[in-house]
Amino acid sequence: MKQSSLCPRFEKGMQLLGKRWTGLIIYQLLSGPQRFCALEAALPISGRLLSERLKDLEKEGLVHREVYTDSAPVRVEYSLTQKGLALGPALKEIESWCQTWIELDDVAQSGEDE
What we know:
114 residues; alpha+beta; Arc Repressor Mutant, subunit A; 7 helices; globular; Transcriptional regulator; WH_DNA-bd_sf; transcription regulation; DNA-binding
């Protein structure tokens, strides 16, 4: 079996961030705490998968889940922890790179113009 020459921490970080929708969820939460329904409306993702990704991010210490029982129905809000917020500069750099280097096909561009 070939041994990887990658740093194990970098490899684990890329596996975590490489999961589908994870980066977009973190990017969305960079703007501040949000309720589940707001995240679901902002992202083209099913509620089941969003819930699963949020649980993964909470388990990894990137997202904090706050339950407010003083209202009916119970309100749940998600926010980034310090560990999650630390990804902000990296995600902003990726966004900048995308603006410079990623081309959208004609179909995607015509949808944005409407």
